[in-house]
Write a structure and sequence with these properties.
Distance between the termini: 37 Å
CATH superfamily of the largest domain: Nucleoside Triphosphate Pyrophosphohydrolase
Helix content: 10-25%
Bound molecules: zinc ion
Number of strands: 10
Oligomer: single chain
Number of domains: 2
CATH class of the largest domain: Alpha Beta
Order of helices and strands: EEEEEEEHEEEH
Strand content: 35-45%
């Protein structure tokens, strides 16, 4: 049975190149796309790449931020963000850490990736980075309401499955 993926294009009504109404139809591979009958533009819906930062202080406490914005506003999460197009995943991780927490950091290793659900983009591909602190002062900034270190046995409920997965992988602890 073929799944109906037309909901992915619910808000894609016009060609972004020539403003002609888009047609929802299958491409040559039989995959549903938003296709412009006027100029041939094809709109793809892909997972959105994001980065998440796992970082501990010298007491092994975990760096978390309280989210100011949706999705999951008011929840605690790892510092994280959607990738900017001209930055590598590592550069994104360094930038997000400083923007959200005031701390400068360096990547120690890539933890892995998590393919998860997003209420806004349907699917997000999160790349987790284990980072160490190299400078700066802890201070919530950008889209973080608070930034704080938590002992691993006192973690608050975590906003995203991807972040719980990265925490579990690095510490063995199943965060609430
Ligand atoms: Zn067009």
């Amino acid at each position: 049975m073929k799944l109906d993926h037309s909901f992915l294009y619910n808000e894609a009504n016009f060609c972004q190149r020539c403003a002609n109404p888009l047609l929802l139809k299958e491409d040559e591979e039989g995959k549903l796309r938003g296709i412009c009958p006027n100029c041939g533009f094809v709109l793809y819906r892909n997972p959105i790449p994001a980065v998440a930062i796992f970082c501990q202080d010298e007491e092994s406490r975990l760096l978390l931020v309280k989210r100011k914005l949706e999705p999951q506003a008011g929840w605690w999460a790892l510092p994280s963000g959607y990738m900017e197009i001209f930055m590598t995943p590592e550069q994104n991780a360094v930038a997000e850490m400083e923007e959200e927490t005031g701390l400068k950091g360096a990547v120690e290793h890539c933890i892995g990736w998590y393919y998860g659900f997003s209420p806004i983009y349907f699917r997000v591909l999160s790349i987790g980075f284990h980072m160490k602190i190299t400078g700066g002062t802890l201070m919530a900034g950008d889209d973080a309401e608070e930034a704080e270190f938590f002992h691993l046995n006192e973690l608050p409920p975590i906003a995203f499955d991807a972040h719980k997965y990265f925490i579990k992988k690095e510490t063995g602890i199943r965060a609430p």
